[in-house]
Design brief:
The protein is α+β, with helices and mostly antiparallel strands and 185 residues long. It is built from 4 helices and 4 strands, in the order αβαββααβ.
């Protein structure tokens, strides 16, 4: 009577092969998740830029708000002061999102619905730290910075182009912003 079965070496080889396949699957899955997150952020940025252009066309104003803003938007169409920064409502007394919300150009909590910033998001899991908006050196020129998890060479080039036009480097160096759109209003 002969015994049939697998040797310990054969079993170890099967386990190693399964482990390798599992690790490849996990790495591929994480890459897909990062790309999907970036697609959602880019779509959100495109909508935000269109809303800014529309707001500017309807009001004839340039946006103010963000860091150092002192007064909520109230019933007006623009903030009275501020110097850029995070775009999300609730970040400052008056934000770019508040301006766009006042004309129903973006839904409530629009920025928070975006994927979160994985580099800078103190105590949050929503997208309130995903977009930043700053005026650049020339009147009417702005940069909308955004966080990406897997930026492309084009994304890096867009950030460099914004910085070469006089836009601040702080969003990239301090807050993990890896994409930028220059906006001329």
């Amino acid at each position: 009577m002969s015994k049939r079965g697998f040797t310990i070496v054969e079993l170890l080889i099967v386990i190693v092969v399964i482990a390798i396949l599992a690790s490849i699957s996990v790495v591929a899955y994480n890459g897909i998740q990062n790309r999907a997150s970036d697609v959602a952020v880019r779509a959100g940025v495109d909508s935000y830029v269109k809303a800014l252009y529309r707001w500017n066309a309807e009001t004839g104003q340039r946006p103010v708000g963000g860091w150092s803003s002192t007064t909520a938007i109230g019933s007006g169409e623009n903030c009275v002061d501020g110097s850029g920064g995070w775009t999300a409502s609730g970040s400052y007394a008056c934000s770019i999102e508040d301006i766009l919300r006042s004309k129903n150009l973006v839904p409530a909590n629009y920025t928070r619905s975006l994927p979160n910033n994985t580099i800078y998001s103190p105590g949050t899991t929503d997208g309130r730290f995903t977009l930043m908006f700053y005026a650049c050196g020339t009147a009417g020129r702005y940069a909308l910075y955004y966080h990406l998890r897997a930026p492309t060479a084009q994304d890096s080039s867009d950030v460099a182009a914004a910085e070469s036009l006089g836009c601040t480097t702080a969003p990239r160096t301090n807050y993990g912003m890896r994409g930028a759109k220059v906006i001329n209003l």
